[in-house]
Amino acid sequence: MTTPKPVYHSELQCSVLGISYDFSTRQGVLSMAETNACDMRGCIALFTRIDPAVKSIQTFAGEIEDTSYRLVGKEWKANLPANR
Asked: Which of 18, 30, 33, 53 has the fewest Cβ atoms within 10 Å of its own Cβ atom?
């Protein structure tokens, strides 16, 4: 199996390897190229279009856990991993 080639996504403002979404838990995952960071608003907007009831999103820069976003009430909160 070949390693996926990242593609720049203008809304996310980063190079994307892939996305996944679990409809049962309402959790999304964004996989980016190493050293990338996404635009928070763009990321939330993308997953909200996939499922307006999305509850959380986890991002990864390469193999490294990056920012997570969680809906608290009506407001999205961003959290960096503990090891950063």
From this structure: 53
What integer pLDDT is reported at residue 1 of this predicted model? 65
Encoded tokens for 23? 């409809």
Task: Measure CA of the first residue to CA of the last residue in the chain; give whole Å.
Answer: 31
Separation CA 13–CA 10 (nearest Å): 5
66 pLDDT higher than 80: yes
pTM of the model: 0.91
Region class of 31: left (phi > 0), else alpha (psi between -120 and 50), else beta: beta
Other C-beta atoms closer than 10 Å to the C-beta of 58 total 18
Taking CA 82 as the corner, what is the angle to CA 76 and CA 83, rounded to the nearest 5 degrees? 135
